[in-house]
Amino acid sequence: MADNAGINRAVNTIRTELEYLRDSGVVSEPQFNSILSQLPQPGGVPSQYVDVRYQGQPFPASAISQAAQDPNHPANPKHPKHGEWAKKLGSKLGNAAIFGAGATAALVTGAAGTGIGAATAMAFARAGCRRIAITDMNAKELNDTRAAILAQSPNAKVLVRPGDIASEAFVESFIAAVVKEFGRLDYAVNCAGIMGNNQSSTETSLDDFDRINNVNYRGCWLSSRAELRAMLEQEPLPSHDPQRGPQRGSIVNIASQLGLVGRPNAPAYTVSSTPAAYSASKAAVIAMTRADAIDYSDKAIRVNCICPGVIDTPMTTCDEDRIEMLAPAVQIAPMKRMGRPSEVADCALFLASSQASFVQGHALVVDGGYVIN
């Protein structure tokens, strides 16, 4: 049963936003009248207009983007009144503090289960992102993540695509589907990866080495490459802060503390791969992140990465032997506990958002102090 009071509030909010966008020149009078005419009386507001900021419709994001290209419009970052215009727009639209106007399409790889990827997808939803694409190998757990997102954010549009990110064909088709469905890609967090056991290099087979690097480095590179290509094709959108420049897109890659420091027979989380191969794959992700950050800075795209420590996920706490194996690594960190997936997810959200607009090519360590000790 419709909540008439809530619908009335939604209609009034949308009307106020429409009036401001019309008065600002972002929406023409015919557009204003056309959209307004589709807002019925309480009891039947079309879902695409209940939240005009986040539903992925052409309005207002595409209108703002189009206006930003007009040198005579204050939406253009070079216009002398751009700061004042953007401030008023942000105030009127009520965007979440971390997002710019209309920039609400996110992608997360490795999003199945209850690990970092799933926590990151949930964090985007909580922050007001209403277009979220998720992928992983496990279709059932991926749909569990989708259900969890919709449980807390019923108006979200969630695109689910199970697949292998080590496959170029899958990655290209997935990113194409995201752009087709959402119209753009603002944020990408590449979480998919596998871990190794405590074998040394001399105990490692070539198959093991290839397996872990195919996912951790090749898969991350394939994803990042496709994401960059998609972002380069779209117009930048205004930041949440009028004093900052617009952003075309932001990518966050998940590396590891072991991509920065070495440790003998470093225990990790899955059989059939090695600490040396794992550490090398994550160091490669860090180096790739820095190189891409340099190459795409002038395109208004930021690329950063996170180096988590031991995080409490199903891979690390699946049995007592695994917990015991990881205990030394946990004790090295001054905080002497495992991190939580949500703690890494919050950092990913910050790096992706325009709040981190001056953070570029950074490897953010989230490990309870492991690296410094």
From TrEMBL:
MF GO annotations: oxidoreductase activity
Alphabetical keyword list: NADP, Oxidoreductase
A Pfam family matched in the record: adh_short_C2
SUPFAM superfamilies: NAD(P)-binding Rossmann-fold domains (SSF51735)
Protein family membership: Belongs to the short-chain dehydrogenases/reductases (SDR) family.
Protein name stated in the entry: Uncharacterized protein
Native source species: Cryomyces minteri
